[in-house]
Amino acid sequence: MNTRKFIVITGTIMLFMSCATNPFTGKQTLALVPNSQILPMAFQQYNQFLGENKVLKGTTDAEMVTRVGQKIAKASERWLNANGYQGYLKDYKWEYNLVEDKTVNAWCMPGGKIVVYTGILPIAKNETGVAAIMGHEVAHALANHGQQRMSAGQIQQVAGAATAIAVSGKDSKTQQIVGTAFGLGSQFGVMLPFSRSHETEADRIGLQLMAIAGYNPDEAAELWKRMKANSGGQAPAEFMSTHPSNDTRIANLTAWSPSAKAEARKFGVTTFK
Ligand SMILES: [Zn+2]
């Protein structure tokens, strides 16, 4: 192989396997499918979900979900800007929707597309509880947990679908593949469980985001106590997953709360709602 050919091939591989340090986790993330390609697919699937479900608009709860979402998004951007990652979320198109559904769940697709189900509101109890939930979900997205959960084969499929969409504008398998990529199962809204380490990471990052957004991080542990009390019934994967155990989670959140407040103070946030 001549040098030029080697450079071209290596360059092509590197283009598809760019390895970037995730600012939120400090870990190397293998980005096989660039955001500019994968996010439009997420947006398409999000819109389809909204079209097939009852989205609440203009109610007190819907307005609260939007308000919390905007604050968590702003907190994410402030944190990134302060840490030298200006423009990191340039492909994000934040959106926050409350959906009428009794399932105890919420999720955030990569690109900042958030859904909160009405079923989780009684456990959230108040705006601060919603902030704890949304901080956690946004953290999964920011830390690229969806892609990391995929197998190499699935990543190849998504890369293939992204290419097909870039070429033809449409791909019949897109929904299923993208659903896998973003953690929505074969049915919308059914989350595949994240690993224990991803859950713990999302708890830690989410706690900081809610604090920077001005919400009291002490309340995250209280939220999970309510989740624990509620977990006797049916168990949606994301919020009732048994890993880490509720007790471990509550202990972690309690232990980390002071450092989340300290982080928030760096942004001039000294009082918490
Ligand atoms: Zn989670």
UniProtKB/TrEMBL annotation:
What InterPro entries does its record include? Mito/Outer_Membr_Metalloprot (IPR051156), Peptidase_M48 (IPR001915)
Give all residue intervals belonging to the Peptidase M48 domain: 90-256
Q: Which UniProt keywords apply?
A: Hydrolase, Metal-binding, Metalloprotease, Protease, Signal, Zinc
Keyword check for Zinc, yes or no. Answer: yes
Q: What is the lineage of its organism?
A: Bacteria, Pseudomonadati, Bacteroidota, Flavobacteriia, Flavobacteriales
Gene Ontology molecular-function annotations: metal ion binding; metalloendopeptidase activity
GO BP annotations of the record are: proteolysis involved in protein catabolic process
- Obligatory cofactor(s): Zn(2+)
Which family does the entry's similarity section mention? Belongs to the peptidase M48 family.
The record, for PANTHER family, names: METALLOENDOPEPTIDASE OMA1 (PTHR22726), METALLOENDOPEPTIDASE OMA1, MITOCHONDRIAL (PTHR22726:SF1)
Record note on cofactor: Binds 1 zinc ion per subunit.
- PROSITE patterns recorded for this chain? PROKAR_LIPOPROTEIN (PS51257)
**What protein is this chain from?**
Peptidase M48
Ranges in coiled-coil conformation: none
Q: Does the keyword Hydrolase apply?
A: yes
Signal peptide positions are 1-20
Entries under Pfam families matching the protein: Peptidase_M48
Gene Ontology terms, cellular component aspect?
Answer: membrane
